[in-house]
Structures are given as structure tokens and as C-alpha cells.
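Please produce the structure of this protein holding beta-D-glucopyranose.
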Amino acid sequence: MKKVIAALSSLVIGSSLVSCGSSSSNSESAPETKVSNTDKTIGIAMPTQNLERWNNDGEYLKKQFEDAGYNVILTYSDNDATKQNNDIVGLIADDVDLLLIAAVEGDKLASTLEGAVEKGISVVAYDRLIMDTDAVTYYISFDNSAVGKLQGNFVRDSLDLDNAEGPFNIEFIGGDDGDNNAKYFFSGAYDSLLEYIESGKLVIKSGRDEFEKIATKDWSSENAKNNMEATLKAHYSDGSQLDVALCSNDSTALGVAQAIESSYSGSNKVIITGQDGDIENLRNIVDGKQSMTVYKNVNDEAAVAFEVCRKLLDGEVPAASLVDTLPVEVTYDTGSYNNGKKYIQSYLLTPYVITKDNLQLLVETGLYKWDGEKKYLEAAK
Ligand code: BGC
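Below is the modeled complex.
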């Protein structure tokens, strides 16, 4: 099934290359036959180049738009909300035709985006919702609750919670509290395990059972490592066994795996979850230092974002029927993501679980390849 989606996806991307010409905004000799998009410019604001995924998102998005003849200005903001605000002010001053934004902090952009509304610039939220503003028209992301649920279900199945006696000890490690997604990841996971927590089969020794208590500043590996070391020292240095570290994503999982390696005295293998399929984490999965990751194909996410934006730029209104024309399986959702002003029309892609047993699925996306010894995965490009 996924193979079909990936194949379809590359076909569609391929055909858009053919039909739209291959010139980019940087091209010095633009062919005469090029589609008439060159007068339109897309401003893309990504959060940071420090995490693998956002480099991929930026690259895939830029390629999609440039291959279709649009100009692209791509900014990265070092995970700094003030810098991203300034970058977006700059894009608005440059009179871009559309803004596609993955917010550093979703609730810090509302007043900046008033400038976009005044100029009639459409604003589309990419991966992370932008809060408290009417400016946002569409949201393209994965089903964020499903990401957490997949992690929770993985823990349930790995520990055989319906049959095993337990109790088992679990700790939650969440994302940055300025990222609206982080709360969905946590509650998706927490709610899927709630019945076992309530029955006492799963125990949170630290007592940290709310998002505010388990957030990791900037999603950084370093902060996750420090937090985990402190948790181990305070709650597991008496010989208690830590069974699960439910990490919301791969960057936090990386730090947690390091903390467990350096500061955990138990001899059991701790179940560690993740999200994204970062290369370093895939190595850890092969080496048994991480148990799984929830994979989100960001090339597909970029393809969906491109189709939504293209419709908007053509003056059309993307709606439910757009999903039938999209290159990948997408749910059109109008009742899940309220940004404080309104429910945002959302196009949600489907995440799936990767373990050491099905890494080949990633190779089939065309984005990864095996190394020479067919042991670890590397980026295909
Ligand atoms: C994204 C995740 C990513 C995290 C940290 C979230 O908003 O959805 O894929 O791991 O940010 O960058």
C-alpha cells in the first residue's frame, strides 16, 4: 500500500517536472516556454536547520515550487521566535504572494501576520499550527494525535499490557511547549495508555503526568539528556527499574538514550519511542538503543502543501474535493485544529511505525538507502 503511495507520489512529482519545465528562480537562462508562475514568489519560513527534518522540508518544498516555475525565498530562524518574526516581516515587505510557515512558536506570530492580511498575502501553516489569528487559511500536517497514539500502542504491545501483571515504570518526555504539535503528541500517547496508568499497571515514578511537566525546551537532545539524567538520579537510583521512556520525537529520544547509557544502573533494555526517522536514530534502532520511530514522510507533506498553495495562488479554494487529486492519502479535517480564532481547514497525512524489522519500508520511499554492508540506512541523496 505504502509502496503504491510512494510510487504515485514520485510519479506526480515527476510529471510536474515534465509539464512545468525544470527551470528554477536561480536559473540564469529561463526558457521561453516556462509556465507563467515566475511573477509569483513564495515565502517559506522554517524553524531551524539544527534538526534533520526541517532541512528536508525546506529542500523538498523549495524544489516543488521552483520546478513549477515559482520564485522561492526560504528562511530558517535558528529556533528563535523573534528572529522568525523578523524574517516574516521581511518576507511581507518583499511582497511575497504566499507565506508557508512552520512556526517556531505558534502563538507569537499573530500581530506580524496582520501585515500579511493587509497586503492580501495568503498564510498557510505548515506542520505546526499558528495560533490566535484569522490570517491562517489552511493547515498541512500529519495527524499529530495519531503519532502519540502509535507510540502508546507500541508500548502497550511491547509490554503486553493486557496480559502481563506489571507494574511497569514509564516516564514521558515531551516537546517544546511553544510548538502546538507537542501537546497533541503527548495527549495522543498518554490517553492511549490511560487505562493502564489508572489501573496502576503503568507507574510514572516521577509523578510527571501533565504536558507542562514533561516539555523539553527547543526539542533539544541536550535538554532531554539533562532532564532524563535528573529523573534517573531522583527516582531510579534506588534500583527501581525504568521500563519505558516515551519520547515524543527522535531528537529527544537521542538525548534520553545517551542519559540511559551514562546514568542508568539497571540492566534491562528500556523501551524508547521516537518520531521522524532521523538517520542517527535509525542507527540507534539497528543497535537496539531505540525501539521505534513514528515515520512521517516529509516529501509527501511538501507535495501536499504545494498542491494546496498552488490552488490558492490560482485564486481557487482548496476544499474537501482536493484530497481526491492529491498524490498521497490525506484526510481533510475541519473540526480538530482550532487555533483560538477558528477551526482551520486541515489536510492531515498518515504516520506509521518503523522498527528494526521494517526499515526496508523507508528504502521504498526513495528517501533512504542501505549502506554498503546493508546494516544501517543513509539518506538516499
Ligand atoms: C514536528 C516533529 C519534530 C518536532 C521537532 C514538530 O512540530 O512535527 O516532526 O520532531 O517538531 O522539530
